[in-house]
Amino acid sequence: MSGGGFGIGRVFGIKIRIDWSWLFIFLLVTWNLATVFSQSHADWSVGLSWGTAVVAALLFFASVLAHELAHSLVARAQGVPVRSITLFLFGGVSSIERDPDSPAKEFLMAFVGPLTSIVLGGVLLGIAGATVGPLADTIADPSAAIAKLNPLSTLLMWLGSVNVLVGVFNLIPGFPLDGGRVVRSLIWAATDNLRRATRWASWLGQAIAWLMIISGIAMVFGLQVPFFGTGFISGLWLAFIGWFLNGASVQSYQQVVIHDILEGVQVARIMRTDPPTVEASSSVSSLVHDHIMGTDDHAFPVLGDGRLVGLVALEDVRRAHRDVWETTTVGEIMTPADKLTAVGPEEDAADALNKLAARDVGQLPVLRGSELVGLLRRQDLVKWLQLHSELVRGR
User: Fold this and answer.
1) What secondary structure, in 3-state letters, does 199-238 show?
2) Is CATH 3.10.580.10 the right assignment for the domain spanning 267-394?
């Protein structure tokens, strides 16, 4: 387990994670489906209703995973690295390390997800429809037709419908939803400017998000909203989705601005060239009192026989019990060099930031060959961004 969730395995080499918030939405979906199934099928037992609901909820999230896998596999085929897929409160998200380098790739990566959901939904509805009976009878009395469905047909009918809805919802042109990314790819193709395309797509995404928030609040107070209806829970959920979409839209644009500022800037211009180092044979107590206390440094390259053998951070010290600081060496608690991610001084700072994010660390050693020439810290990148974002705004 790590961070805000836990891993459940790998699919096509991509790590699959579940955020803790997923457990809440899984229980909510299961409870809601069990209620609906018991009301639609009066002859079903409580156990059958709940059992079908659990299976339906699991298959629904498997469908969400298929949607995200479609994004991820197309991204990898286009040379864009994918770290993981996480299932969370609002569905799923693929952790794609960087934006594609062309509008066509962006369009394909964005569109394949909704297409997968809609095709999957259509296939499931087709299979379910074959078990329903004459279409005229179903249209004449839908409730009676649904009541006659067996558990498998009910499961297929619901799962097919919800997949089509997921696909259609993701085509809403609200960046960073898939539809918003399709819009961005079209603007990008027309303007040949990713940053401008992202800004316009972000504005559209924020407008749609605020429309959701206002509509959701209106539903809470009993107003009827087309397609969404009315109701406290439905309105609150719609407003919550709008709030999340607005934040994601703003953040996505900020990420593009950050990448633009750092692109083409060498790590050597930002790194700390004289990072304090510590010997692997030094005690943890010496590290704390001679290096950590009184400075703002939280990580130190570790040297052995004059070469880099690892990196020790404040988190490593915290894991060592205070009583053994005098007898424990830095080499025993450090992260060995072969497990570190390093960057070169001529490397692009934007790529270095991606590595920091991928490893979720605060610093990276800067090596020229096997020689330590500096330390790139997250705080150094932040200072550079603060300075140059002010200059960009000034221009």
Assistant:
1) HHHHHHHHHHHHHHHHHHHHHHCCCCECCCECCHHHHHHH
2) yes
